[in-house]
Amino acid sequence: MTALISATGLWTPKDSISNQELVTAFNAWSDNWNAEHADAIAAGELEAKPQSNVDFIVKASGIKSRFVISKDPILDPEIMAPRIPERPNDEISVLAEIAVNAAKDALAKAGRQAEDIDAVIVACSNLQRGYPAIAVEVQDALGAGGFAFDMNVACSSATFGIETARGLIASGQAKSVLVCNPEICSGHLNFKDRDSHFIFGDVATAILIEDESIAPKGAWEIIGSKLVTQFSNNIRNNFGFLNNAAPEGIGDDDKLFKQNGRSVFKEVVPLVAQLIKDELDKAGVAPAQVKRMWLHQANLSMNTLISKKVMGKDVDMDMAPVVLDEYANTSSAGSIIAFDKHSADFKTGDIGLICSFGAGYSAGVIIVRKT
Ligand code: COA
Fold it and tell me: Fewest CB within 10 angstroms: 70, 83, 162, 311, which?
């Protein structure tokens, strides 16, 4: 049995934060903090908090703004974090709600009814609870059949989710699998850390993967795929059910996103470029035959370098489209947003690839051909 990508869906929060808004809030917080700790700073006991800078952010990352679901508290120097009210158990949880929004978009594009779905996978970095699985809640809210489960491979969750869906279709467990990537990345971001406060945004995407017997005309055949992981502490978040409060001597920022950005850059670029090249080779596709690469959206220079290593030359935005400027890093959803927004011009037989990479390290490549 062969699995195809029938459609993708996208839900974008209505509020967006520009770099200038973010930097203004950060600098006000840093000024307040420095004034409050002026004596200790003067005595050399504490280091003053630095100022952030809009030009640095654009130059280092390519990010110009990010969508968020809780704008005002993030920009309040007294809070500097999203405030998303907890909901009672008889209300849909916020993660399930945004997954459903993206799922409905994908279903409408494929002309598929929710009751025809056999399996729902919520594949994302930032699950809001342990159980019941968010995916089971999404299944219920949509009125889908079959079964559902959550999985987390950080930024690579979408490609790993697509492969898992293919496996379910190949084994006969399901014919129509919905993979949702709801990412409220602002929840784990440390808005008081100058080196990373600009990195993430919130969004939800969905991918409908179906057996060839039911996939709609124009679906995307998967002609090659490869997943890889390699342990690294360079991107890490220690929050968990056994460790949700910081122990003595360790600041609360231990339970938020942390990275060694430079090391990530250096180690992940060659890993991903090689992964793509090997998989294209295995699928019998020459780089010149690839019309577009929908890459994970974490850093513009990283994508430029990966594209160059794969293609053997500089590539333009048409070859490797960027949504990072508007959305920032949205973890697993990034490459799917790029695919969703930049694939309508593909004609039958055109080849492209979806590629994710991130914490773990983890990376996945899915080579697709338009039917
Ligand atoms: N405003 C102004 N200056 C800043 C700043 C900010 N917001 N943040 C950092 N700086 C300063 C640093 O303190 C440093 O100063 P120094 O040289 O005096 O020490 C300088 O700018 C360079 O910082 P650095 O962190 O080395 O920048 P960089 O060019 O490596 O870019 C990242 C940082 C994070 C954008 C980049 O490394 C990256 O994107 N890496 C990959 C990250 C990734 O893919 N992560 C996956 C997440 S899932």
Answer: 83
Is-cis flag, bond preceding 131, omega within 30? no
Q: Tell me how far the alpha carbon of residue 7 lies from the centroid of ligand 1, in angstroms.
A: 36
Kindly provide the residue ranges of all beta strands, DSSP E only, lying in 230-318, ordered along the sequence: 235-236, 258-259, 290-295
Closest CA to 368 of 308, 294, 305, 274: 294
Contact 174, 119 (CB under 8 A): yes
User: If you classify domain 220-370 with CATH, what class do you get?
Assistant: alpha beta
Residue with CA closest to ligand 1 atom 46: 358
Six-digit token pair at 234? 């360079």
Domain boundaries, given as residue ranges, for the chain: 220-370
**Ordered mean pLDDT values, 10 residues apiece, the chain (371 residues):** 94 98 98 96 95 97 97 97 95 98 98 96 95 98 97 98 97 97 96 96 98 96 97 94 71 86 95 97 96 96 95 93 97 98 97 97 98 96
C-beta of residue 339 within 8 angstroms of C-beta of residue 134: no
Who lines ligand 1 at CB under 6 A?
52-53, 56-57, 60-61, 155, 194-195, 235, 259, 261-262, 264-265, 298-299, 302, 329, 358-359
| 298 CA → ligand 1 middle, Å | 12
Model confidence pTM above 0.85: yes
Tokens of 340: 């969703």
Cβ pair 275, 335 in contact under 8 A:
no
How many Cα atoms occupy the beta-carbon half-sphere of 176 within 13 Å? 23
